[in-house]
Amino acid sequence: MREELNQGLIDFLKASPTPFHATRSLAKRLEAAGYVRLDEREAWRVESGGRYYVTRNDSSIIAIKLGKRPVLEGGLRLVGAHTDSPCLRVKPNPELHKQGFWQLGVEVYGGALLAPWFDRDLSLAGRVTYRAAGMVESQLVDFQAPIAVIPNLAIHLNREANQGWAINAQTELPPILAQLAAGEAREFRDLLAEQLTLEHGVVADAVLDYELSFYDTQGAAIIGLSGDFIAGARLDNLLSCYAGLQALLAADADESCVLVCTDHEEVGSCSACGADGPMLEQVLRRVLPEGDAFARVIQRSLLVSADNAHGVHPNYADKHDGNHGPKLNAGPVIKVNSNQRYATNSETAGFFRHLCLENEVPVQSFVTRSDMGCGSTIGPITASQLGVRTVDIGLPTFAMHSIRELAGSQDLAHLVKVLAAFYSSHDLP
């Protein structure tokens, strides 16, 4: 079971280099399990026992399983995660021709660790909008091959590199795509038109715009002398998306369940398809009873917000509170912050801890050091938007926001087990 889940995650990460691809991957798996796509522009007909999903912007997805038990009686069991990860996004007019090299200007998306992006084999993926036969269309593209690199400067020319180096995102991050002949220049949109033809057989009159990200072509892998770890890009937070999907597919048919995976968490979630936008409430209002009954359902519901937690690093253990250092392969972490950077309270934490104990899943707690700032996630945002009780949890991770992160190879199975138990639980607090 553990090995199968880990390999499934590795395959999912490979198929999901961007939020667009992650959403498409989730949708394909839901459709294979009998979920029906709902179009937000059309009228909906939903029924008890039905399975549905909705996407917005091609980068956020909500899956809903309506149970046999009346939703006014049992409420909703929601699991939330996010589809985006810090990365380098290509600028609208990116062409740079310097010293005979073709480079692309990039913008840093989210709070990325920049140093690990150097000397990696990079590819490019995302969404391209184009005109063909007078129509405006969009397609997802993925070059897959390593087409770019950001070479480091030799230490001989940067003697202070190991004493601390402030990376200039404007001047030091443009990846190199090719070496050009004297006087030669390349247009990025021409390259995208070629890729559309190669990947989709599309002959575009013009490439109008795009949202494209560089990514590391090295695939995720189980590593360590005893296979203790899983290393890969975008574990934050595609690991939680995948765990939520597996749990949803394993849930029984009695209770009503929701999986919500939204874009733009790494930049604040404030968008039409982000957790700080209207998407979740708008979708739920279309499938749940109206008016007073809707509020009653929400107050009978509970959200498990699943986003990676900071594992205690052996080289930097002093960065953690001494009593709250989550360990890899020791189970999911309940995240607590008295200043509401996490939405966990004693009731929701207690219920999640109860689920873990009942299902023999190890569980841990995380509180940041009192002299350090605390990050946040979709939990407080969704709680404030929807008014739903929430517990923030996640699997411990090293190198969060790096181009290659590290988690425990046993923890995915722990998380899927407790989330499946949550989806199937008959009594919420």
UniProtKB/TrEMBL annotation:
InterPro entries: M18_aminopeptidase_2, Peptidase_M18, Peptidase_M18_dom2
Coiled-coil features, chain-numbered ranges: none
Main EC class the enzyme belongs to: hydrolase
GO molecular function: aminopeptidase activity; metallopeptidase activity; zinc ion binding
Record-level GO cellular component terms: cytoplasm
Entry-linked SUPFAM superfamilies: Aminopeptidase/glucanase lid domain, Zn-dependent exopeptidases
Enzyme Commission numbers on file: 3.4.11.-
CDD domains from the UniProt entry: M18_DAP
Name this protein carries in UniProt: Probable M18 family aminopeptidase 2
